[in-house]
């Protein structure tokens, strides 16, 4: 499936720029765009190549991550033993595998696709136009491995704007960033300090999550309501339970005052459930241990290039170190390194002081603190630990996926993993099995975050308002490149004569603001539930990252998802025929024209376990806690 060019050409041009392309007979591979009228007919987008060969490329990425881990742990010069029995490698961003652009996994996928393309097409010369010198370096080594000549093309396009925060993160020395982190964490803990501490947690069941996604009425009732745990909170109201929350980048004084007040009220409202904030722990022993651990990491990373060989492919002289070096440096020396050290030692203190726990649950997202939690939970002799896949499990969300060798007790460096993973329905179960996660470690539970689908209307939906216009509900996402691509296609469509009857309801992600919008766009609240606007629209238009597609499809609303050539297709309904997928403005117009008639609908029960009585959750807690 890597034979992508019909006409044989001696030269391959790789176009990683938005600058104008001068037509030629050379084979053209688009790195950051999909094909369109601005490019010759023989151009191919590497993002399309990735989707056509998704399983093979995903396997290669997971194999590479596994090999790097084994390489790092297998050498006394590079291994990152944090303490006896725990390797710091498991807390690096490289191992965490987030789908954000800084992790560079989409770039890695494109490079693997390029390697396979060059095995099929024997090009004599490879020419690259890019503003990324690290990418150019790696492509040059790939060209050399195939005996092809390599040349760069002068870049005069626009580079992606960098936020002030990202720029500062690059120019400020990493140890200084670590010191800033220590001060900030100490300040937050001081503001949240109470007379209570983790030793007041007397329950034998613990839940670890985030101080985030509370119920809509929590500020009025002052009682704990959670979008993560929904109905389960009420089921556990008479059980002694410890709720341990991580903050999510909340640092402002007003935020911390509100958090402290709300935490106090949660504990007063139900004395059986004890709420603690992990970030509030600031005892001197934590500071001392965190600084010592950070200094050990800093010393280990002084000769950074010793890690370079670990990022070389086993079957070719191709090294991916240039695209991972910066984030590796942040994980070993920067703000993230100190954050990881502090979280490790806070969790250690908590799990030392907690009474013997029969059962623990945490939200499984492969975050660095989760690796520490699993290791320390077992170190201190607690019972079963269960990871909860609270949302959807998506094909390209590699956080829950690993090379199958990780599940065999034969590696040099074994990954901490939970005793069981709680999954919320057929969709997640199929995805985990497809990714070759051990099926005997999966346990079915009800989908707590999707309980609303059980009572949502799934037929007879009628749009209110002007029926002469097509109303598009636009839901944007937090990933900037995905939103830019989505809005670019929409704005281009609104400039055409075919768009005269279109009306837009724009529901931005809560972190985003938009300027200079088309007069036909009405901005609605980003904090309201998306389903609030379903009866006002004809079609939902969203990125291929958001899980909002599920709410739309299950409500019988036509759904159009916009792919982003700079990220993966992270749709939870990737491959489902009920969802229209678009790459270009022309495809978007065609999809909108194609929404007439009865829209395809997905039954929520085909995706999730939705019994509101939670029999599976009750059985899991009852059997595992005894």
Keywords:
626 residues, alpha/beta, Rossmann fold, seven-stranded parallel β-sheet, six-stranded parallel β-sheet, 19 helices, 20 strands, 14% strand
How would you portray this structure in words?
By secondary structure, this protein is α/β, with parallel strands linked by helices. It folds into three domains: 11-76 and 94-152, no CATH class; 196-279 and 344-451 and 614-624, 3-Deoxy-D-manno-octulosonic-acid transferase, N-terminal domain (Rossmann fold), CATH 3.40.50.11720; 470-602, Rossmann fold, CATH 3.40.50. It is 36% helix and 14% strand. The protein has helices at residues 46-52, 54-73, 93-96, 105-120, 133-145, 164-171, 174-192, 218-221, 231-235, 253-269, 284-300, 321-333, 335-353, 368-379, 426-434, 480-494, 548-554, 585-593, 615-624, and strands spanning 11-16, 27-30, 44-45, 81-83, 86-87, 125-130, 149-152, 205-210, 241-246, 273-277, 359-363, 384-388, 420-423, 442-444, 470-475, 502-507, 521-523, 539-543, 559-562, 580-582. A seven-stranded parallel sheet has the order 10-9-8-11-12-13-14, sandwiched between helices. A six-stranded parallel sheet has the order 17-16-15-18-19-20, sandwiched between helices. It has a five-stranded parallel sheet with strand order 3-2-1-6-7. β6 (125-130), α5 (133-145) and β7 (149-152) form a beta-alpha-beta unit.
């Amino acid at each position: 499936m890597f034979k992508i060019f019909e006409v044989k050409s001696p030269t391959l041009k790789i176009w990683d720029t938005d600058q104008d392309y001068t037509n030629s007979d050379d084979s053209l591979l688009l790195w950051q765009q999909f094909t369109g009228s601005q490019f010759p007919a023989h151009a191919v987008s590497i993002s399309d190549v990735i989707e056509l060969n998704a399983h093979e490329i995903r396997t290669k990425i997971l194999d590479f991550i596994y090999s790097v881990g084994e390489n790092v742990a297998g050498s006394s010069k590079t291994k990152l033993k944090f303490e006896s029995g725990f390797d710091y490698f498991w807390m690096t961003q490289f191992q965490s595998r987030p789908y954000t652009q800084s992790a560079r996994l989409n770039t890695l996928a494109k490079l693997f696709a390029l390697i396979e393309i060059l095995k099929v097409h024997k090009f004599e010369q490879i020419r690259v136009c890019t503003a990324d010198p690290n990418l150019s370096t790696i492509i040059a080594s790939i060209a050399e491995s195939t005996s092809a000549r390599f040349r760069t093309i002068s870049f005069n396009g626009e580079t992606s704007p960098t936020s002030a925060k990202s720029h500062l993160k690059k120019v400020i020395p990493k140890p200084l960033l670590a010191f800033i982190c220590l001060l900030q964490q100490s300040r937050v803990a001081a503001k949240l300090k109470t007379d209570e501490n983790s030793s007041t947690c007397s329950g034998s069941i613990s839940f670890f999550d985030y101080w985030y996604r509370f119920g809509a009425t929590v500020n009025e009732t002052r009682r704990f309501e959670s979008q993560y745990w929904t109905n389960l909170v009420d089921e556990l109201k008479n059980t002694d339970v410890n709720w341990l929350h991580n903050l999510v980048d909340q640092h402002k004084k007003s935020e911390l005052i509100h958090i402290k007040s709300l935490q106090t009220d949660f504990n007063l409202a139900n004395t059986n459930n004890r709420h603690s904030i992990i970030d509030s722990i600031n005892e001197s022993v934590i500071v001392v241990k965190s600084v010592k651990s950070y200094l050990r990491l800093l010393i280990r990373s002084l000769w950074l290039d010793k890690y370079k060989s670990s990022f070389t492919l086993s079957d070719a002289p191709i090294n991916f170190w240039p695209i991972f070096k910066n984030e590796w440096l942040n994980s070993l020396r920067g703000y993230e390194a100190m954050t990881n050290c502090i979280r490790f030692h806070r969790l250690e203190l908590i799990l030392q002081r907690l009474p013997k726990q029969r059962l623990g649950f945490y939200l499984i997202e492969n975050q660095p603190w989760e690796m520490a939690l699993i290791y320390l939970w077992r170190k201190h002799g607690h019972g079963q630990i269960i990871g909860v896949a609270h949302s959807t499990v998506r094909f390209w969300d590699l956080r829950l996926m690993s090379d199958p060798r990780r599940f065999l007790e034969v590696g040099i460096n074994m990954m901490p993993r939970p005793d069981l993973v709680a999954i919320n329905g057929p969709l997640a179960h199929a995805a985990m099995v497809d990714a070759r996660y051990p099926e005997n470690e999966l346990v079915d539970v009800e989908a707590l975050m999707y309980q609303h689908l059980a009572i949502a209307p799934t037929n007879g939906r009628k749009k209110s308002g002007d029926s002469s216009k097509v109303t598009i509900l636009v839901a944007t996402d937090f990933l900037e490149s995905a939103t830019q691509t989505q809005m670019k296609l929409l704005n281009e469509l609104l400039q055409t004569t075919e768009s005269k009857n279109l009306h837009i309801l724009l529901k931005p992600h809560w972190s985003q603001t938009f300027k200079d919008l088309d007069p036909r766009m009405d901005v609605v609240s980003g904090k309201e539930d998306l389903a609030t606007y379903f009866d006002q629209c004809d079609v939902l238009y969203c990125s291929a990252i958001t899980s909002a597609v599920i709410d739309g499809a299950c409500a019988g609303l036509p759904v159009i998802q916009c792919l982003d050539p700079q990220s993966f297709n992270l749709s939870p309904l990737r491959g489902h025929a009920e969802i229209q997928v678009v790459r270009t403005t022309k495809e978007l117009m065609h999809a909108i024209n194609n929404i007439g008639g009865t829209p395809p609908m997905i039954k929520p029960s085909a995706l999730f376990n939705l019994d509101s009585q939670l029999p599976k959750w009750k059985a899991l807690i009852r059997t595992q806690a005894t």
